[in-house]
Q: What sequence folds into this?
C-alpha cells in the first residue's frame, strides 16, 4: 500500500520558531482524538451495547421473541453494533422457546455467519448447535457442529445432549466415544438422556461405568440416577445414593433432597422419605408436594391432608400439584365429600383452573366410591377431552362393579383417544368375564386379533443386591428358576393350609369359552 503524498516542505516555508521567553503555547498540530477521548468513546459504545442487550434479554426471559427481535432491529437502526453476548442472549431464548424460536434463530445465524462468529467463536457456535437440536433440527445442529473450527467440552456435550434429546442414541454413543476428554457433564448427558427416554436400566449401567471410569458425579447426575431408581423401585441403589450424597458438599441441595423424597415414596418407604424431609435445613414447595403425593400414593391419606394443611401454615401457597396430592389422598381413602370440598377451594379460593389430572382425580374419587353416574357427569362436563388415564379409571370401576353397559359406552371414547392400546381391550374383556358374559369377552379378543393388536405381556420386577430381575408370566429363562418354583410351591402349600382356594373354576370356564 502506498502512503499518501504530502507537499514537500522547504526551510523558507517552515513555521516560525516560538520565542523561548514567550508565555504563549506553541502552535502544535491538533490530532483529531486523544487517547483519553478514544477510551471514553469506546466505553460509551460498550455501555450502549450493554443497555440494548439488557433490554433484549428482558423480552427473552419472558418468551417475548417477536419483541426481542424488534428491539434487536432498533438496536441496529440506532447504529449500535451487537456483540457476541447479544447473539448468545437471542439464541438462548430461541432454545428455551423452540416452537417459535427456529425462524428467529435462523435469522440470527445468517447475521453471525456474515461476521464469521458461527465458526470462529466457540460460544456462538455452541449456542447454535443447542438451538437447532432443541428445535428438532438435528441435521442443522450436526452441520453447525462439523463446521466449528474450535470446539470445547461444552460443544461436544451440547451435541451429545442434542442427539439424546432427538432419540439418536447410537449417534450420541459414537460421539461420546470420540470425545477427546469426557467430564461429569458428558456422562450426565447420557444418563439423563436414558432416563428421559424411559430406559432406566441403561441409565444405571452408564452410571456404573461412570464410577468405574473414576469420574465424580455432580448433583445433576445424582438427580437423574435417583429418578431411575424411583421408576425401577431400586431401593438398594437408592439407599447407596443417599449414603453417597451425605458425604458430598451438595448434601443440603434442595433438589437432591426432593429427589430422595420422591425415590423413597415411590419405593414404598414413606418413613425414610419423611426422615429426609424433616432433616432438610430448607424446604421448597416441591418438598412439601413430594411428601403430600408420597403419603397419598402409599395409602396414608390422613398424613397427606395433615401435611397439606401444615404447608399452608408454614406460608407456602399450594399449587396444582398440591391439590392433586390432596385429591388423590381423598380418593384412596373414600373421603368423597372432603375431596369435593378441596376441589372447590382450589377453584374458588386459590383461583387455580383445574387441569385434566384434577378432573381425573374427581373421576377416580367417584369411581372408587361406586358412584359411576357422578363419574360420568364429570367426564361429560370436562372443559377438555378426557384422556386414556381418566377413562381407564372409570373402566376399572366398571369391572369392579360389573357395569357392562357403562364399560361399552366408555370403549367408544377410548377407541377415539387411544385405538391401539391393548390394555383397554383386555380390561373390557375382563369386565365381560367378571359377569359371566363369555361371548362378549371372546368377541373383544377376536376384534383385537382382527385389527392386529396383541396383548403385551405384563411383567414384574424385583431388586436384589443392586440388580433388577424381571419376570414375565410363564418365563423360565431365569438362572434360578428351579429355586423360584420350589419357593412358589412352598408358598402355595402354605396358602392351602391357611384355607385359600384358587379361582380355578372361573379360569377353566373362561378358557373353555
A:
Amino acid at each position: 500500500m502506498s502512503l499518501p503524498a504530502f507537499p514537500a516542505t522547504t526551510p523558507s516555508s517552515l513555521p516560525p520558531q516560538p520565542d523561548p521567553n514567550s508565555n504563549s503555547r506553541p502552535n502544535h498540530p491538533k490530532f483529531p482524538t486523544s487517547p483519553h477521548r478514544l477510551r471514553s468513546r469506546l466505553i460509551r459504545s460498550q455501555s450502549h451495547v450493554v443497555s440494548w442487550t439488557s433490554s433484549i434479554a428482558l423480552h427473552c426471559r419472558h418468551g417475548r421473541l417477536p419483541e426481542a427481535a424488534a428491539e434487536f432491529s432498533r438496536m441496529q437502526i440506532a447504529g449500535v453494533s451487537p456483540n457476541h453476548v447479544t447473539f448468545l442472549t437471542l439464541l438462548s431464548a430461541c432454545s428455551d422457546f423452540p416452537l417459535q424460536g427456529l425462524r428467529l434463530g435462523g435469522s440470527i445465524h445468517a447475521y453471525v455467519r456474515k461476521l464469521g462468529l458461527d465458526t470462529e467463536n466457540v460460544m456462538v457456535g455452541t449456542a447454535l448447535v443447542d438451538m437447532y437440536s432443541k428445535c428438532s433440527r438435528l441435521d442443522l445442529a450436526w452441520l453447525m457442529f462439523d463446521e466449528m473450527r474450535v470446539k470445547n467440552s461444552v460443544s461436544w456435550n451440547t451435541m451429545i445432549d442434542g442427539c439424546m434429546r432427538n432419540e439418536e442414541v447410537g449417534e450420541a454413543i459414537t460421539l461420546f466415544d470420540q470425545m477427546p476428554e469426557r467430564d461429569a457433564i458428558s456422562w450426565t448427558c447420557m444418563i439423563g438422556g436414558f432416563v428421559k427416554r424411559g430406559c432406566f436400566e441403561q441409565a444405571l449401567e452408564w452410571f456404573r461405568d461412570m464410577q468405574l471410569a473414576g469420574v465424580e458425579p455432580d448433583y445433576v447426575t445424582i438427580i437423574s440416577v435417583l429418578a431411575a431408581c424411583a421408576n425401577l423401585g431400586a431401593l438398594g441403589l437408592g439407599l447407596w445414593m443417599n449414603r453417597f450424597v451425605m458425604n458430598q458438599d451438595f448434601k443440603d441441595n434442595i433438589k437432591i433432597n426432593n429427589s430422595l423424597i420422591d425415590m423413597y415414596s415411590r419405593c414404598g418407604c414413606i418413613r425414610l422419605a419423611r426422615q429426609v424431609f424433616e432433616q432438610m435445613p430448607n424446604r421448597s414447595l416441591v418438598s412439601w408436594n413430594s411428601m403430600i403425593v408420597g403419603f397419598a400414593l402409599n395409602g396414608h391419606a390422613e398424613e397427606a391432608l395433615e401435611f397439606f394443611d401444615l404447608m399452608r401454615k408454614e406460608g407456602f401457597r399450594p399449587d396444582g400439584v398440591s391439590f392433586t396430592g390432596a385429591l388423590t389422598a381423598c380418593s384412596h381413602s373414600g373421603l368423597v365429600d372432603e375431596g369435593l370440598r378441596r376441589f372447590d377451594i382450589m377453584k374458588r379460593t386459590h383461583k387455580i383452573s383445574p387441569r385434566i389430572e384434577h378432573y381425573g382425580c374427581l373421576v377416580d374419587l367417584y369411581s372408587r366410591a361406586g358412584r359411576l353416574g357422578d363419574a360420568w357427569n364429570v367426564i361429560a362436563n370436562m372443559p377438555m377431552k378426557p384422556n386414556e388415564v381418566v377413562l381407564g379409571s372409570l373402566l376399572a370401576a366398571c369391572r369392579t362393579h360389573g357395569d357392562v353397559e357403562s364399560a361399552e359406552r366408555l370403549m367408544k371414547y377410548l377407541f377415539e383417544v387411544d385405538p391401539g392400546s391393548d390394555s383397554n381391550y383386555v380390561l373390557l374383556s375382563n369386565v365381560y368375564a367378571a359377569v359371566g358374559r363369555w361371548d362378549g369377552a371372546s368377541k373383544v379378543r377376536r376384534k383385537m386379533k382382527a385389527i392386529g393388536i396383541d396383548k403385551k405381556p405384563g411383567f414384574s420386577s424385583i431388586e436384589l443386591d443392586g440388580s433388577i430381575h424381571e419376570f414375565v408370566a410363564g418365563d423360565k429363562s431365569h438362572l434360578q428358576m428351579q429355586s423360584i418354583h420350589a419357593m412358589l410351591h412352598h408358598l402355595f402349600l402354605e396358602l392351602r393350609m391357611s384355607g385359600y382356594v384358587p379361582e380355578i373354576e372361573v379360569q377353566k370356564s373362561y378358557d373353555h369359552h
Notes: The radius of gyration is 34 Å. The longest strand covers residues 459-464. Residues 44 and 355 are 51 Å apart (CA to CA). The beta strands are 459-464, 467-472.
